[in-house]
Specification:
CATH architecture of chain B: 2-Layer Sandwich
Strand order of the largest sheet of chain A: 2-1-3-4-11-10-9-6-7
CATH superfamily of chain A: Class I glutamine amidotransferase (GATase) domain
Number of strands of chain A: 11
Largest sheet of chain A: 9 strands, mixed
Number of domains of chain A: 1
Number of domains of chain B: 1
Shape of chain B: elongated
Distance between the termini of chain A: 10 Å
Helix content of chain B: 25-40%
Largest interface: A-B, 20 and 11 residues
CATH architecture of chain A: 3-Layer(aba) Sandwich
Distance between the termini of chain B: 9 Å
Number of strands of chain B: 3
Order of helices and strands of chain A: EHEEHHEHEEEEHEEEH
Radius of gyration of chain B: 16 Å
Helix content of chain A: 25-40%
CATH superfamily of chain B: Phosphoribosylformylglycinamidine synthase subunit PurS
Strand order of the largest sheet of chain B: 2-1-3
Shape of chain A: globular
CATH class of chain B: Alpha Beta
Radius of gyration of chain A: 16 Å
Number of helices of chain B: 2
Oligomer: heterodimer
Structural class of chain B: alpha+beta
Strand content of chain A: 15-25%
CATH topology of chain B: Mth169, Chain: A
Structural class of chain A: alpha/beta
């Protein structure tokens, strides 16, 4: 069965094409491109991806405007029906702003835009998105963000850790994130938000392949399900 | 009716921008500054009948991120 995925493009998204390429390379089926002004998502989607970038110019707060757009209301509804949603970088910011994931992403503690490859520990290798990794494995993915400093209150952080919902943790200090959290899963495990860019690490020519297993896990998990 | 919404980081939430501004003020030779927090001021011009509940809803749903921010609503006298 073909893998039906959609990539949402907002004004200011800039990783949407890379994300669509990654999904097509791994699944063999082109991702459907959805524009922010669309009120509805295509039917029978297996997977929704929110890309990195600077949606709506980061006005008000990163991801704040996108999270209130009609298409994201449709994404929230689809997530509620169990459709898996992956948000990368600005996509993660949109997911926290929309309430699909807890916490918030604040300005990097060092105040600088940080663009480099970082080590990540895979904390949960049981999820739809991370089943292709070994628990505790260290992988390397690029980050490129100004606002990736993950914040949640201590009780929320304890709950996330206790429920195995921290998907990835930075292996070194990157942006001041609480407990070095780099990626967070929803309660159902079907929504993942992460600051690092797996779509920028799917071929040796891009400088690494550690991101590929994330897309392969999702495609395998969904097509065989 | 003119309304000013003051959005500020909750106490306890680290404010790296405030810290950098604090450092810069001290660099300019200003003394005795205990702390600096950077917030946001949003001015709205709304219909006179706009209720407090509506203004509150605007803040909670969009203008402030309740995970990290507080807000204060100041209604200004119409000139």
């Amino acid at each position: 069965m073909a893998f039906r995925s959609a990539v949402v493009t907002f004004p200011g998204s800039n990783c949407d094409r890379d994300l669509a390429v990654a999904l097509e390379k791994v699944s063999g089926t082109p991702a459907i491109r959805v524009w922010h002004g669309d009120a509805e998502l295509p039917e029978r989607l297996d997977f929704i991806a929110l890309p990195g970038g600077f949606s709506y110019g980061d006005y008000l707060r990163c991801g704040a405007m996108a999270a209130r757009s009609p298409i994201v209301r449709a994404v929230v509804a689809a997530a509620g029906r169990g459709v898996p949603v992956l948000g990368i970088c600005n996509g993660f910011q949109v997911l926290t702003e929309s309430g699909l994931l807890p916490g918030a992403l604040m300005r990097n503690a060092q105040l600088t835009f940080t663009c480099r490859s970082v080590p990540l520990a895979v904390e949960n290798s049981q999820s739809l998105f991370t089943a292709g990794y070994e628990a505790g494995e260290t992988i390397h993915l690029p980050v490129a963000h100004h606002d990736g400093n993950y914040f949640a209150d201590p009780a929320t952080l304890d709950r996330l850790e206790g429920e195995g919902r921290v998907a990835f943790r930075y292996g070194e200090e990157v942006n001041g994130s609480q407990r070095r959290i780099a990626g967070v899963l929803s309660e159902t495990g079907t929504v993942l938000g992460m600051m690092p860019h797996p779509e920028r690490a799917i071929e040796p020519e891009l400088g690494g392949t550690d991101g590929r297993a994330l897309f392969e896990s999702a495609v395998r998990g969904l097509v065989e399900a | 009716m003119k309304v000013r919404i003051h959005v500020s980081l909750k106490p306890g939430v680290l404010d790296p921008q405030g810290r950098a501004v604090h450092h810069a003020l001290e660099g300019l030779g200003f003394k005795g500054i205990a702390d600096v927090r950077v917030g946001r001021l949003i001015e709205l011009d709304v219909a006179d009948g706009t209720s407090d509940a509506e203004l509150d809803a605007m803040c909670r749903q969009l203008l402030a991120n309740m995970v990290i921010e507080n807000y204060r609503i100041d209604k200004l006298e119409t000139a």
